[in-house]
Design a protein that fits this description.
32% of the residues lie in helices and 22% in strands. The chain is an alpha+beta fold and 129 residues long. It has a single domain, classed as YdfO-like fold. A six-stranded antiparallel β-sheet has the order 3-2-1-4-5-6, with no helix packed on it. Helix 1 packs antiparallel against helix 2 and helix 3 packs antiparallel against helix 4. It comes from Chryseobacterium tagetis. This is DUF1398 domain-containing protein.
Amino acid sequence: MFTLEQIENAHSKVKSGADFPKYIQEIKKLGVKSFETWVKDSHTEYYGENDFFTRSEPQYSDLIIVDEADKEKFSQYLKSHQKGETDYMMFCQDCAKTGIEKWIADLEKFTCTYYDKAGNEILLEVIPH
């Protein structure tokens, strides 16, 4: 099974959203099947084979997530992040101000789905691989 240290090592290579697909490939090889990242503090829950589970610690102080999701504005921020124009912290701040509470990456389907505070799917994207 994978360790948090292995995941953090892979994540340390990510400088912007442009690096996300490589990161996904690397942690998939470690055995990660999916993960759920919470925008408020960036703690992440990682899932593997046979109900294996590990969780990271919060990465920063809690962000306030607005109640109403703005899909259009979030999509603009996401595209900007994927082009390498923003760092991870800025992306999380952009998520919070557009009502994104969390995202779930499915490494089997190569998808990343973004959700609002009510649990509604705001955007589903296919991860390049």
